[in-house]
Amino acid sequence: MSGLEIERKFLVKKGDAYKRAAFSSSHIQQGYIPAEGATVRVRVRDDKAYLTIKGKSRDGGMTRYEFEKEITLDEAAHLMQLCQGGVIDKHRYLVKSGSHTFEVDEFHGDNDGLVMAEVELGSETENFVKPDFIGPEVTGDPHFYNSHMLAHPFSTWKELVPEEYR
Questions:
Q1: What is the CB-side half-sphere exposure of residue 82 using CA atoms within 13 A?
Q2: How many helices (H) and strands (E) does the chain have?
Q3: Which residue ranges does the record assign to the CYTH domain (predicted)?
Q4: What is the pLDDT of residues 129-163, one digit of tens each?
């Protein structure tokens, strides 16, 4: 897949409402290969692996170019050795809301306690229905970029997030 990615990110309220509403879940581990001017991610999601390259964001962090290609688990294992700063470990829950699917990520390790949701849109002005567990929008806030959380884990700045979202 390649093209423009348009997504919005939100904090998720404490509790397990998103788990009860999910129609699917998966375990994800991902690392980042240093690159100037782009984000290069290696991801293993259950029994599949992907190489993703994302360009710089624009429009307040909502839109950016994305290229993604499925790779073998063996290729991912080799590429993970090039990743710096460790690995993001999380569980992803898919929740249908209206005509959209929200991806809810529950982070582990140094990012434990953080739960975020993303929704991909067809345009920057597209309307969508938020599930009840969705909290404040954090689109464009670098604190909430997975690549940023490797060097600056949630455990070091969680006090910046209201108690009902950590």
A1: 13
A2: 3, 9
A3: 3-151
A4: 999 999 999 999 999 999 899 999 999 999 999 99
* pTM of the entire predicted model: 0.91
Domain ranges of the chain: 2-161
- Distance between CA atoms of residues 73 and 48, nearest Å: 6
Distance of CA 81 to the CA centre of its chain: 21
* Lookup: tokens for 92: 């992803």
Pick the CATH number of 2-161 from 2.40.30.90, 3.40.30.120, 3.75.10.10, 2.40.320.10: 2.40.320.10
What's the pLDDT tens digit per position in 84-112? 989 999 999 999 999 999 999 999 999 99
Q: For residue 33, what are the CA distances in angstroms to 18, 23, 52, 158, 163?
A: 31, 32, 10, 26, 33
Return d(Cα 75, Cα 33) in angstroms, integer. Answer: 14
